[in-house]
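Session log. Operator J.P. requested a structure for one protein chain; no other inputs attached. Running the standard single-chain path with token output.
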Amino acid sequence: MFINRFIDGKEAERIGLVSLAVPGDRLEESVNKIAAEIAATSLLGIFHGKEFFNTHLEILGLGALFRYHGQMNALGRLKKLE
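Structure written below.
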């Protein structure tokens, strides 16, 4: 984005920009598999993972940025309720 260079899916996966790159003909299968894994995860496990991640951001000094995104998300949801 900053250097105006195209990065394909495999390169994005290699550098950590995305978690997984798959061919188009396997996209739906891959999405369904990941969705099933997420759905099978306990709510408490997801909660603890999110708390761990949020605490890590705080330690790194990124807490304010994280709160900002949360606030923008909340404001976006309010707009949908109007």
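Operator note: The chain has four helices and no strands.
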